[in-house]
Amino acid sequence: MSSVPLQPSLNAAAGASLAQLVALKPGDVMNALVLALLKDDTFRLQLPTGTLDVQTDKPLVPGTRVELAVKGTVAEPELFLTPLPDAKAARAEAAMRLGAQIETLARLPNARPDNIGQVAATIVRDAATRQGGMAQLYADLGASLAQPKVALPAPVVTAAQQLFALRLDATMPSAIGANDIKAALVRSGLTDTAPAASLVPRSAVPLDARAVLLALREALKNWESAERAPLATSASPAPSAPPAAPATARNAGPMLPYPNGPTVPQPAADPLLPANATPHEMALHLLDKTDSVIAREMLLKIASLPERTDTIARPAEPASHRMTFDIPMATPAGTTVAQMRIERDGAQQSGERLEPVWRANFSIDLEPIGAVHVRIALVGGKAAVTMNAERTESAESLSAGLPLLEAGLRKAELEPGALNCQAGQPVTASADHGLYVDHAS
Questions:
Q1: Residue 112 is part of which domain span?
Q2: Mean pLDDT score of the chain, rounded to an integer?
Q3: 175-231 pLDDT per residue, tens
Q4: Measured between alpha carbons, how far is 120 from 303 in angstroms, rounded to an integer?
């Protein structure tokens, strides 16, 4: 919306005087809030330093946040007001854009090579600024379900329960097998494999994480709309929102994913729901975290695309394929998220035959061992494993268990190759220059 010229009201009933107006110097720009309609053409604004009554023939809705710019001269200042975008409307528009981008992304692997880069770059520019960790969403959803003061709508509860049902049970890591990892891959939506009807659990929980997240977002949008408070109609300032809980090291967001980048685990997070949040504030908070996870899922999908020649990805080998996906896991400390990348990168001579080379990288952050990064290379029937534990004592414990790993590989009818464990983070390729830069601006 264009700027609206204003005139100061000489009847500043709330303490705004000409002296106060003179204090506004040409060149000043500040945010303000439309507090109330005093007359047909007179409105009261809340400025950072007080209130000011202004006259304009353009309608202003109480509760609207605006930008006030001072132009002209000191002797004859001119005020111009520009309504700022409504945060709720902007959030709704972004949510709709996310849904459209998800559908576009699903069709990317079948798009013409010259179109893939352009479409993916557009999605990356938007999603990179919004992406957030799944561990944080799980923490806040769990806190919202456990608190007794606000009753969540049934559709929100159902969608949240479906999301929790997608987790692997990491309370007994030895119970997680190959079929569990395969199910997590299918749920990620990175494969064209449709889940067989026989695999659908009796609880009818969708196996597609994308469908669950979209259902949760829709339920939260409906809740937010139903709880939306009416705009203020008096000169009294609206009460400020309760402060959010302080962030701790457990609340750091995950690094942006990129092709051939490191796998990044997410430790269990602390809830960040505002203290004493109203139903509307709770709905907005959970909706924001859900949109962040959906944005991250799109970035993971782009990082998993096959050969591309655009500027946001490394050129891939002709026979290469990669899939990077997050795996939520239930632990006693909360929900942690492991990340895995499975890729095939050409072939290697093995005896008299060319054997496909498969690599699997995964990272997990569980107490008491902390973050551990594992790289597995499989050529024919031979497997080499390298582990990096970020804690020195964990690296020592894992090194002591390498004979058990060797025995496990032989039990799986694989020939053990080089097996080792190191302390610290693994060396990884850096992101391409300009990977998350908006070249259009």
A1: 89-228+258-316
A2: 74
A3: 677 788 888 888 776 665 444 444 444 344 446 788 899 899 999 988 988 876 443
A4: 10
Alpha-carbon distance of 350 to 330, in angstroms, equals: 40
Domain boundary among 316, 333, 366: 316
Which tokens hold the place of 392?
């020195």
C-alpha distances in angstroms, 34 versus 6, 60, 61, 266? 13, 7, 7, 42
Cα separation of the two ends of the chain: 21
Show the CA angle centred on residue 255, arms to residues 205 and 211, nearest 5°. Answer: 20
For the purposes of burial, counting CB atoms within 10 Å of the CB of 25, is it exposed (0-12), middle (13-18) or buried (19 or more)? Answer: exposed
Q: Would residue 246 count as lying in a domain?
A: no
424: left (phi over 0), alpha (psi -120 to 50) or beta: left
Helix (H) or strand (E) segment spanning residue 78:
strand 77-83
Full DSSP string of 286-328: HHHHHHHHHHHHHHHHHHT--S--STTSPPPPTTEEEEEEEEE
pLDDT tens-digit profile of 155-185? 999 999 999 999 988 887 666 777 888 888 8
The verdict on 131 and 179 lying in the same domain is: yes
What tokens were used for 385? 């494993």
3-class secondary structure, 91 = helix
- Closest by Cα among 135, 99, 419 to 293: 135
Residues in the chain: 441
Which of 316, 350, 382 lies at the terminal end of a domain, its last residue?
316
